Amino acid sequence: MMNAVERKKEQTMQHMDTEMFSTKGNEPDNNRGNIQRDPGSKRSLSKDMILQASLDAFKKLNPVVMIKNPVMFIVEIGTFITLLLSINPDLFTASEAGRGYNIAVFFILLFTLLFANFAEALAEGRGKAQADTLRKTKSDTMANLVQKDGTIRQVSSTQLKKAIWSVWKSVN
Asked: For residue 5, what pLDDT is reported?
């Protein structure tokens, strides 16, 4: 026999299971075969952002920029040494490793550098875009300013001053 607390707990668990496995709103789009998106939602990544991040990934290969990240700088040095070994495998000592092996290692290290730089540049781009959006929101937000006579006037939030804000806050 269940008491009220156990019954409520079981109902909550059943509700959570229903919510977790519900497909409401996630039906596949028959035209494309993927999950439908809210038509009002914006894409988080634009083509311009990806293109700029790709260009920045190559710009960040500059050792002057790369030295700010010591781990990736060491990988870049290893990439350069591997490039030299790809050209002349016996550069430092006699080596059994062939040119093909050194070229493969070079491309793996180069891909690692480019991918890390791309991810960093993409994160920076998204951060800048978010900051711009917040800055725009701040300048576009309207506030209700309560006048001394009790009337309410709409003003831009950028026009509010701390003294006015404290008066407005105390009225509410």
From this structure: 60
Amino acid at 95: S
- Give the Cα separation of 141 and 5 in Å (integer): 46
CA pair distance 75, 86, nearest whole angstrom? 16
CA 28 to chain centre: 26
Tokens of 62: 């500059």
Distance CA 18, CA 24 (A): 11
Q: What's CA 162's distance to the chain center, in Å?
A: 33
Residue 162's CB is within 10 A of a number of other CB atoms, namely 7
Helix, strand, coil shares of the chain, percent, nearest 5, are: 60, 5, 30
> C-alpha 105: how far from its chain's center?
29
Output phi, psi for 31, to 5 deg: -75, -40
What are the pLDDT digits (tens) for 40-79? 445 567 888 888 889 999 998 899 988 998 999 999 999 9
